[in-house]
Amino acid sequence: MSDTQDPRSPGFDIRAVNQTVIAEYRATGGALEKTLPGSRLVLLTTTGRRSGREHTTPLGYVTDGTSDAAAAEDQAGGENQAGGTAQTGGNGQAGRPGRIIVFASNMAAPGHPDWYRNLTANPKVTVELGTGRFAAQASTATGAERERLYQALVETMPGIRGHQEQVEREIPVVVLAELG
């Protein structure tokens, strides 16, 4: 889909694009070759805050091997002695990648994306990574943890680098932790 028009142009239908990406993702176990070749995506399913219906969104991501205890220490401003660093992850992994980190940029729009507003109302979500599917708890990173994870996101996905500077809101960095 590299020849697709600019997402900010009039008439661009992001929902139609997302449905095409989701269909290919599910058909290929996450190996996108037609719609977004070379992209590393996760599918996030949230529950609509008003409708109660499920909504699925494809999102770029990084993984973070930091344990929940180390992440809590990081949020409190302490040093992360475990050395947990955000890492990129591949599709179709047999094991779980740790926490999955996504960015609620909304293509640098002034408001949060619907999927983010949905998960703030109901943080229990479903994640599809490659051929795996699991329930997760979503939370918004803050403080030092947000900064560390934000840096990992922009290093991995340079196309989002300028998004924060284009908007007045702080773009949420969302942590998706598998429910046990």
UniProtKB/TrEMBL annotation:
Q: Where is this region: Disordered?
A: 73-96
Which GO terms of the cellular component aspect does the record hold? plasma membrane
Low complexity: which segments have biased composition?
A: 73-85
Which reactions are catalysed by this chain?
A: oxidized coenzyme F420-(gamma-L-Glu)(n) + a quinol + H(+) = reduced coenzyme F420-(gamma-L-Glu)(n) + a quinone
What GO MF annotations does this protein's record show?
coenzyme F420 binding; oxidoreductase activity
The UniProt entry, under InterPro entries, shows: F420H2_quin_Rdtase, Split_barrel_FMN-bd
Record's Pfam families? F420H2_quin_red (PF04075)
Q: Where is the composition biased (Gly residues)?
A: 86-95
Q: Which family does it belong to?
A: Belongs to the F420H(2)-dependent quinone reductase family.
This protein is called Nitroreductase family deazaflavin-dependent oxidoreductase
